[in-house]
Amino acid sequence: MKSLANHIIKALVLILLFSSLQLAQQRHILSQNNSNLDSVFVMKKSPWDAVLRSAVLPGWGQFYNESYLKIPIIWGLGAWFIYNWNWNNKNYQQYKTLYIQTGNNIYVGNRNFYHDQRDLFSIYMGLTYFLNLVDAYVDAELFDFTVKGDNYSGQPMLSLRIKF
């Protein structure tokens, strides 16, 4: 009888020990969850502020978002399209004047070609400006997006917080 009582006491001690360890882990998890619930996520960069900046001066929104390598790309594309628009417009005006002066139909084809090219570069400039705005918005929206490694497995882990 005494040995049975000793076994029961040992079993109760082990149960209490394991349950207290489990309870301690649950308290730790609950305290972590409560700390996450108490914090409010605040974005560091405003997407519409970045769009407004890029609308005023292309590349300024990328500067605001700290994407410095995109600025020369935007300015380079814009300068290239403006240069080509001016060159095609100059040739269009030249062939238009030659056609008016001579009445030769040979100049009509060249005039129309440079007119179409000038219009295409106008579209390219507009698309570059629009994509500059979209890039500034998306870059500001994803500024707080992080990819961290999982502490247990060492694998990359995506983490995104959105406030509704």
The SSE string, one letter per element, is HHHHHEE
Helix content range of the residues, please? over 70%
Could you give the count of β-strands?
2
Major beta sheet, strand line-up:
1-2
Supply the number of structural domains: 2
Mean pLDDT: 79
- Shape, please? rod-shaped
Task: Measure the end-to-end span.
Answer: 64 Å
Number of helices: 5
- The structural class is mainly alpha
Gyration radius (Cα, Å) is 34 Å
Poorly predicted segments: 21-30
Largest sheet entry: 2 strands, antiparallel
Report the sheet-strand fraction: under 5%
Give a description of the structure.
With 164 residues, the chain is mostly helical. The chain contains five helices and two strands; from the N terminus they run H-H-H-H-H-E-E. The protein has two domains: 1-39; 43-159. A two-stranded antiparallel sheet has the order 1-2. A hairpin with a 6-residue loop joins strand 1 and strand 2 (156-159).
Keywords:
two-stranded antiparallel ribbon, 164 residues, single chain, mainly alpha
Short description:
With 164 residues, the protein is mostly helical.
Topology:
Layout: H1 2-38, H2 47-56, H3 60-64, H4 70-102, H5 106-141, E1 146-149, E2 156-159
Antiparallel strand pairs: 1-2
